[in-house]
Design a protein that fits this description.
mainly alpha, three-stranded mixed β-sheet
Length: about 110
């Protein structure tokens, strides 16, 4: 699946940063540096040595970004707003597609 948000540990290596930047450049996915160390991300994900993580679910990515903004401040506000807008547009498209699908049955 396609990533909706790419996150890097605050202490990610230069190589990890380059890989993440290369991915987001090609896919237009937002990239954010988290206020967490690799060790903390590894504990949260259960994957040792984890310096980056991606969210594939848009709703989860938007909720995570909103939580970052709430907990760590305005630095994450643009990211939270961008992902919330994408989530809302996707929700509207699904609703519209569902209505159109329903119209065909009548």
């Amino acid at each position: 699946g396609k990533a909706r948000l790419m996150c890097l540990a605050s202490d990610a290596s230069d190589g990890a940063k380059r890989r993440a930047e290369g991915y987001v450049f090609e896919t237009n996915v937002p990239l954010t540096v988290l206020p967490f160390l690799k060790e903390q991300i590894s504990e949260a994900t259960g994957r040792p040595g984890c310096s980056m993580a991606a969210f594939a679910d848009l709703g989860l990515a938007a909720s995570f970004a909103a939580a970052l903004e709430e907990e760590f401040g305005a630095d994450y506000a643009p990211l939270a707003a961008e992902l919330a807008a994408k989530r809302d547009r996707a929700k509207a498209r699904r609703k519209s597609a569902g209505a159109k699908k329903g119209d065909r049955r009548n």
